[in-house]
Amino acid sequence: MSARKLHLDRERGNAQGTPGFIALSPAFGLFTLELPWRNNQHDISRIPAGTYPVHWVSTPKHPHGVYMLQDVPNRGAIELHAGNVAGDRSLGYHTHSLGCFLLGMRRGQLLGQRAVLDSHRALRIFEQHLQREAFILHIHDPEGFHVRPTQ
Question: Would you say residue 87 lies in a domain?
Answer without folding.
Answer: yes
